[in-house]
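S1.2 Input.
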Amino acid sequence: MSAKKIGTRWLWAGLLIVLLCYIGVYILLYMGREQQTARYRSTSLPSDFKYNFSQSTEELTIQTPQGGLLNALLFKVPKAKGVVCFWKGNGGTLANWGAMAPTFLQFGYDVLITDYRQHGKSKGAISLANFNNDAQTVYDSLKHRYREADIVICGYSLGGRVAAHLASANRPKFTLLIDPASAGGDFSDRFTDILYFPFPSVNGFVFPTEEDVQKAPSPVVVVSTDNPNSTAYKLKAYLGSNDQFVALPGATHETILTHSQTTQLIKKLLSPP
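S1.3 Output.
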């Protein structure tokens, strides 16, 4: 047998091995889709857990589609100008995220903070559809208490993704996205989707935030670090003429939420001259 034929056979054998590995990895990833929910679980709290905040609070239990039962806290101020519907980052519970409430209360707004499914006292199966449906149900509940024009949507990190989708289908006063990002990081999720196109996605949690901010009928304000490669920074290219983009030099994903410039921006937005 000639060397050329032997080389051709080895080439085809190598290509077959690569193809089998490609298909095998895809099957493993696809079968493991359900395990991705582990990224979005947090600490559980007993149903009789008592929150301890100095501000006036009302604890709410909100029933949502597909078996969701969400625990939320409504922080109140006298003669509120409106309400901030705040969506927290991944991890933690209302027991610690409630500390964010004074950031908005000081400017005359009530604040609603909600634990996602399998966070704190909240229960139900985790999925991208449930993140979105739950947020809409919570928002609709606020519209029974406040005029929609007095509702502000705000989200940080994972909550920024949830908030952006909520903004795309509603008309709040405005939406504030503080360094929005998903728990697993978009690069790996989107890379595998491209790698295996046109097969069904192996990722259950690719948040379409770029499309969401473009669809939002009300103004969107994005606060980002000054890293041009970050998910939040890249949203700048998708914002409209009524939107606003602010990059904070020196801020990190961990510090941006409580950064002094973020607080000043919130003051400016909630207490205009």
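S1.4 Remarks. The CA atoms of residues 106 and 147 lie 20 Å apart.
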